[in-house]
Amino acid sequence: MKVTVSHKDGMKFEAKTEKSSFIIDCPVISPVEYFLAGIITCSATDIVLIPKNQGKTVTNLIIDAEVVRNEEQPRKFNALHLDYKFSSDADDITAARWVMASLETYCSTINTIRDTTEISYSITHNGNLIRENEKMISGGGSKIDMGKIQACLS
Question: Domain 30-135 sits in which CATH superfamily?
Answer without folding.
Answer: K homology (KH) domain (3.30.300.20)
